[in-house]
Design goal:
Blueprint (H helix, E strand, L loop, with lengths): L2 H16 L3 H4 L3 E9 L4 E4 L1 H9 L5 E11 L2 E10 L2 E12 L2 E10 L17
Length: 126
Amino acid sequence: MDDREIRAALDRHWAASDVNDFETEHDIYREDAVLDYPQSGERIHGRRRIQASRAAQPNRKRFTVRRIVGAGELWITEFVLSYDGRPSYTVSIMEFLDGKVARETQYFADPFEPGPSRAQWVERIS
């Protein structure tokens, strides 16, 4: 796959994620894909196990992609993942092999109030 095709596959993946279309969402992964969640210390082996773990998640999820950057075998998506309306700022790092995701690592960050010590230099973003 060239970069244009991978980008289209990523667009399909995140759109399917947003509407809980678990089959389409996981078309992007190799059968032997590995997914890491470093913050919780979890690793999931295999496309079907990744899919099952996500389908079992009880919260209502929404995905808002902020940007996708990448080329060749390495692609990064920055997005907001809302669980039952509570946002989590998320980064997904995907490594492709033969046009499918072989490895993904996801990092999550909850929102926090800005520090007053820097208030004079910043503007609020949404």
